[in-house]
Amino acid sequence: SKVPPIILNNGVEMPQLGYGVWQVPDDEAERAVVTALEAGYRSIDTAAIYGNEKGTGKAIATSGVPREEVFLTTKVWNADQGYDAALRAFDTSLTKLGTDYVDLYLIHWPLPSKDLYVETYKAFEKIHSDGRAKAIGVSNFLPEHLDRLIAETNVIPAVNQIELHPHLQQHAAREFHAEQGIATEAWSPLGQGKGLLEVPAIVAIAQKHGRTPAQIVLRWHIQLGNVVIPKSVTPSRIKENIEVFDFSLDDEDLAAISALNEDRRIGPDPATFDMS
Length: 276
Ligand code: NAD
What we know:
CATH superfamily: NADP-dependent oxidoreductase domain
Strand order of the largest sheet: 3-4-5-6-7-8-9-10
Distance between the termini: 38 Å
Bound molecules: nicotinamide-adenine-dinucleotide
Mean pLDDT: 98
Order of helices and strands: EEEHEHEHEHEHEHEHHEHH
CATH architecture: Alpha-Beta Barrel
Low-confidence stretches: none
């Protein structure tokens, strides 16, 4: 494969770069995911709330890539937190995905106000011990949520998928994850495209290497050790975003990107987000 794996804390290998399908409608997801698989992606990130598990599963089934070569992630939505609800939601996701296991199952948001993430995670431990999720983890968890989860459950999350890009570098979270053996996965790794890819420092590094700004940002993540799941529905960009393993940023480039941190979120604050 084009993409090297990282080894999760339970020994499972996860490609360091995958394809995210948030905001891809179900009827477009099949074509988009097939395009990604043809471009060499072997990790797909979806979620129950994205409404495209069917299209995603269909793409994997029809792509000709064996199921066991694809690392498939989905997430339990907020409304389905709780032990029994999470078990039911997992069955629904598997049915839509048309598979009998996922590689990674994540709690999408902690929802501290609902106080159900420990119970939800206990259902995840059951799913994991049944072999229906090769790894389990969380998304949008702050260190305080992880502390509690680790104290009250048995399986240390393999992954925490958090908003992370040059304008929100998440130094404290990354350090905490490293201490606990949790892989840091970056969502919106390109800062959703918007202004980030026009920042002069990034454009200058792109020119220096004869690469695109998106490739520079993705390469920065890779050299930091983050897992990334960039999204695009444009075939040329889908291909471009995986071509980041044949060049390296130097220390000066890395320092220039590190200087762009503004601790600025695009998405919601996990401490207060409670939409269900
Ligand atoms: P992203 O940072 O991947 O940016 C995607 C956007 O950037 C595209 O829509 C496009 O406009 C632009 N883009 C992509 N490639 C480009 C290129 N090569 N050149 C120029 N522009 C380009 O943002 P995202 O979609 O928010 O995040 C990626 C994935 O992360 C999602 O698809 C989803 O799987 C996951 N995610 C998870 C959560 C969560 O709460 N766990 C939240 C948001 C996203």
